[in-house]
Structures are given as C-alpha cells and as structure tokens.
Amino acid sequence: MTRLAYLFPVYILVASLLPMNTIAGANAQTTDITLTVELDDPRLYPDTEATYTLTVESPERVHFSSISLPTGKDVRARRIGQHHDYYFEGTDEYRISTYQYRVATDAMGTQPLASPTLTFVELNPDGSRERIQLNAEPIMIERLPIPDTYPGLWLPAEKVTLSQQWSSEANTIKAGETLERHVHLFIAGRQIDDFPALQVTYPDAITLLNETPKFTQTQAGTTLTLHQSLIVREDAEIVLDPIVIPWFNLTQHQTAIASVNGRTLNPSAAKQSATKVTEPQIWRFRENVAWMLIGTISGLCVLCGLALLVRCSRRRNATSPTHQLKLALVADQPLQVQLYWQQMPADTRQRCQAALSRYLQVRYQSERSDSEKEKSKQALLEQLNVTTDKPRLLPDFDPL
User: CA-CA distance, 396 to 394, in Å (whole number)?
Assistant: First the structure.
C-alpha cells in the first residue's frame, strides 16, 4: 500500500504527458452521455429573466472539467443551482445532473440561445486521451418591448398581491382620533434591492405618520409591509382613495391590476349635546319667620359649600386632563398625550389642534432632530397655557 502511494503522483504525471485529441462540437449523445435543455418561457421583456435548465445523464465515471454558461447576443446568464441523482443499471452506475440558469437579453427580436459547453477527458483503450466537448441543441428566444397599452411604472412579475388591515372598520371617527393601517405588497421573484417604492397619498384633513417599511423575503418572493397612523384633523367627510398598482403578468403576458379598496370617514354622529340652561328660580321675600329661617340656613349652607368646593377644586387641578396632558408632554409620552387630549374641552382642542398635529408629526419622524421635537413640544405647552394659566376665582366651576 505504501509503494502504491508513492507511485500515484508518477501515474498522474505520465497520464498528463500522453497525447490528447480534442473533439469539439460533439452531438448531444456521445459515449453514453445525454444532454437535454428546457426554457420555462422563450419570451423575454425588459427587466425579466427566464429559467434555463440543462440535464446531463452520464456514467458515474465521467467527470466534467468545466461547464460554461448559455451564450447568445447580449445575453446575460448566471447559474442559480445544481442537483445530482444516481441510479444503477446492472453493475453500472449512472448520474443525472441538473443545472439551472437565469438568462436575460437586451437584444430585441428572435435569436438562438446556445447551450452550455461541457468538457471532459475520455481515456481510450490504447492509453491515449481525448478532450471531448458537448453541446445541446440551441433554443430560440424572443426579446419583446414593453406593450404600448401598459400604464404606469413597469412592473413585470409572475404574481403580485396587495392587501390591507385596519385597526377599526367603523367609519365614524372624531377629530383627533387615530386610525392604524397596514398595507402588504407581495411581488414574486423580486429581491429587496430591486423592490419598487410604495407611496400612498392622503387628503389634507389627515396627518400621516409612517413607520419604517418592513421587508419579508422568502423563496417565492418579497413582501413589503407599511404601518401607517392616520390622525383625523377635522370633523368632516374624508374620502380615502383605493390603492391601485398595475403590473404585467409574465404567465399570461397581459396587464393586470392589484388593488385594495378605499373608504369614507364620516364625522362623528355623537354630537355634543347643548348644555341645558335652567332658568333661575326667583325667591320672593315673604314676611314669614319660617321662610326667613330657611333662607338663613340655606345661606350658611351655600357659604360652607363654596369653601369646600374651592378646597376640592385645588386638589382636583392636580388630576385634571389639562394637568395630566402637560405631564405627558413633559415626559414625552405621545400615546398618553392623545389619551388626555380626548378629555380636553372642545374649544381648547380646536385652538390647539395645529400645535398637537405638529408635535405628533415631529415626534414620530426619526429624521427629526431633538431641537425640533423640543420646539414642537414647547409650542403645544404655550398654546395650552393661554387659558389654563389665567387666574380664576373659582377654577373648574361655573358661576353660581
């Protein structure tokens, strides 16, 4: 065994010095080797690729030293995978190898696509060697332009789907409330680096807060997810348009549409009921001792009640919506800000709506600087302090 190990390098050297003939352009069936090729679709469009499959059936003893790429005029090809299977016929072992490529071309019209060239060395009985190169029959491919009837951005794919989810299906919504929306766009065969941008426009009555788009990639394709927060700025009918994306179906070779429905947001049906004004009762003085006593006792009760009300109102100021809203602003808690905002008086919300929208927009945009965020916060606090800082004799209570 040791002597054979020393002789093996010598055998390789001698074999390499043996005469070798080259047979180029051999048929697809040579020395028990069979080549078959297949193209999933011979029609190509701009920015599209076809899958080219080469299947090689050969004895297991045959080893290919090189396998080239498919070639043609202005053809771009890349290998995307290979697979090997083995089987026996009696005592002879055979191998079935499958090679897959993605091919594209910029040359308009029809042209032949040459198969890959397989090269291997055959040892003859006399000890000589022959380098054999095999090719399969070429396949005709056709490069087509973008159809004249196609609208919008060119988007060729085998499958495109568009879907959405809303945080609430109710169309009745009040100014200042937030509606969450998730939009999902799936494109088969697309990678993240060549995925088109998805932009959704909204009316001026909507303040839009966008989170960073999220991509999910699988073997089938890539899904883009948009998470949007829609803040309603006014109590008016707001029409949200449907999202429509035209695309070109490479399977059916025709224009298709992916879309999701829009919706109409109606102003809140729950109107604030007008404050019921009770006409004051006119107490008439009567010269009656019983009535005078009742009036005196009532006056004392009113004075005691006023004292208690003033004391309670001072304590309640610390837990009022305005106070809690200011604390949430100072702590930079936008969710709490929106919660206490709904409890504010209608006139205050109407006056401060623009400052609140500016604060939320700057707060949710990551590219905003800290100084811009602080400036928007202070602007909202100043708007709130216009009325909340005015001294009142009896805070939070209407005159008796």
Answer: 7
Phi, psi of 111 (to 5 degrees): -155, 160
The CB density around residue 249, as the number of other CB atoms within 10 Å, is 14
- Quickly count helices (H) and strands (E) in the chain: 6, 22
pLDDT at position 121? 87
- Residues 60-73 have pLDDT tens digits of 988 888 999 999 99
User: What's the token pair of residue 329?
Assistant: 């602003």
Q: Kindly state the DSSP code that residue 400 receives in the 8-state scheme.
A: -
State the pLDDT at residue 186: 96
User: What is the Cα Rg of the chain in Å?
Assistant: 40
Query: Hey, how many other C-beta atoms are within 10 angstroms of the C-beta on 95?
Result: 16
Tokens 């766009």 -> residue: 185
Answer with the residue of higher pLDDT: 163 or 175. 163
Sequence-distant (≥ 6) Cβ neighbours of residue 121 within 8 angstroms: 20, 65, 129, 130, 131, 132
Residue 171 and residue 218: Cα distance in Å, rounded?
35
Cα of first residue to Cα of last residue in the chain, in angstroms, is 116
pTM over the 0.90 mark = no
Please report how the helices 370-388 and 321-330 are oriented relative to each other, as an axis angle in degrees rounded to 10. Answer: 160
Write the CA distances from 319 to 123, 258, 314, 325, 363, integer angstroms: 96, 51, 10, 10, 25
| pLDDT tens per residue across span 193-224 | 888 888 899 999 899 998 889 999 988 899 99
190: nearest Cα among 144, 238, 222: 222
Give the three-state DSSP class for 299.
Answer: helix
d(Cα 397, Cα 303) in Å, to the nearest integer?
Answer: 15
Distance CA 117, CA 140 (A): 17
Rounded CA separation 143/21 (Å): 39
Three-state secondary structure call for residue 197: coil
Q: Burial level of 99, CB count in 10 A (0-12/13-18/19+)? A: buried
Q: What is the pLDDT of residues 341-385, one digit of tens each?
A: 777 888 887 888 888 878 877 776 666 677 887 888 888 888 888
